[in-house]
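Practice problem 4.
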């Protein structure tokens, strides 16, 4: 059973009457008020459902040996899948000022970068991706089981069919940053609709969203010049298909922005973009959706802003809850994913190089706060 919050309700009573004389106005007014109070029961409280709160699964995945875990997703059978960088680190020497990768001579990462994990124990069930990637970033498993991966060094996005180790579809030009319609520059994230429509967050340099049809043909670029929305490092994407909504972790603007996705098989979404922002949100690194809710994690922004998770209601443009692990603090969250059934949530970190598992808690005290030490 879901947790309940108690909210006060105020009622305003508007009464119309026609007293016979001016002298009877006061008596008539008070008599009508008394009559209403005698015959109506005014509720003092209202029960409101609270959103599920992620609760840490203590000890899950602690034995994993990982590089920087840049991405996490959940496949169609509920297994978390991560994208990590092995021994490679993104630092100030990785790119020049024109965004060209400076360590090509090192070759691709020579160990498996994609790991499929056991959702119960966190153990590695399968792995692949060696000798393919230079600087992994985002990972998404779409409704058909295809795996989408972004590499910021290659400036490319790849689609891998289930079981395949060669990409069936590639966006961007190898090692060539650019802003043309066939070029990408440090792409960060991919979202794919059940209709096959593709959204690519492009990314650190271009700060735009590209929409493609299922064949890989460009449909639209967000935002257009006439649109008020301005993005600054769109770092993660989440689709709310039923609402025809695409939400964006607008990292350096310290907010979540949502736009109409204009999906082929959905009812029309909002005509104008809107944002969710509050002082403690900080730089939003990762977002994931389930139902009408969006779960988000921020990264280090300032000493005054905690690194934590958020539960958002994009339709209300509101932050509903704050949460985090109970055994220690988040340090550098980079991505977030939730299972299709909404029971399990995963957060990947860069720095500690780990993956957290959370289970959704439905019974908790509304005023209880997650551990903030």
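Answer key:
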């Amino acid at each position: 059973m879901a947790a309940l919050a108690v909210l006060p309700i105020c009622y305003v009573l508007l009464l119309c009457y026609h007293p016979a004389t001016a002298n009877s106005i006061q008596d008539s007014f008070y008599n009508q008020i008394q009559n209403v109070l005698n015959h109506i029961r005014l509720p003092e409280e209202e029960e409101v459902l609270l959103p599920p709160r992620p609760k840490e699964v203590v000890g899950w995945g602690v034995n994993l040996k990982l590089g920087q875990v840049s991405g996490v997703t959940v496949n169609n059978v509920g297994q978390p899948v991560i994208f990590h960088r092995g021994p490679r680190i993104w630092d100030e020497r990785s790119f020049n000022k024109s965004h060209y990768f400076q360590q090509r001579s090192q070759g691709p990462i020579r160990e498996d970068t994609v790991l499929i994990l056991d959702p119960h124990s966190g153990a590695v069930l399968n792995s692949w991706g060696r000798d393919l990637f230079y600087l992994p970033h985002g990972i998404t498993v779409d409704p058909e089981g295809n795996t989408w991966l972004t590499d910021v060094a290659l400036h490319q996005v790849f689609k891998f069919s289930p079981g395949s180790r060669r990409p069936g579809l590639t966006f961007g030009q190898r090692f060539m940053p650019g802003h043309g319609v066939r070029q990408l520059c440090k792409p960060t994230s991919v979202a794919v609709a059940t209709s096959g429509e593709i959204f690519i967050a492009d990314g650190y340099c271009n700060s735009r969203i590209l929409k493609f049809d299922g064949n890989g043909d460009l449909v639209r670029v967000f935002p257009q010049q006439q649109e008020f929305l301005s993005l600054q490092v769109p770092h993660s994407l989440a689709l709310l298909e039923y609402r025809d909504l695409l939400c964006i972790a607008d990292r350096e603007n310290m907010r979540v922005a949502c736009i109409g996705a204009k999906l082929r098989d959905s009812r029309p979404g909002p005509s104008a973009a809107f944002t969710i922002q509050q002082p403690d949100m900080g730089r939003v690194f990762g977002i994931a959706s389930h139902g009408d809710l969006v779960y988000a994690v921020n990264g280090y922004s300032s000493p005054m802003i905690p690194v934590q998770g958020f539960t958002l209601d994009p339709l209300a443009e509101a932050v509903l809850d704050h949460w985090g692990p109970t055994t220690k603090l988040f340090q550098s969250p980079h991505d977030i994913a939730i299972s299709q059934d909404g029971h399990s949530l995963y957060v990947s970190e860069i720095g500690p190089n780990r993956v957290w598992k959370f289970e959704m808690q439905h019974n908790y005290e509304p005023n209880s706060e997650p551990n903030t030490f």
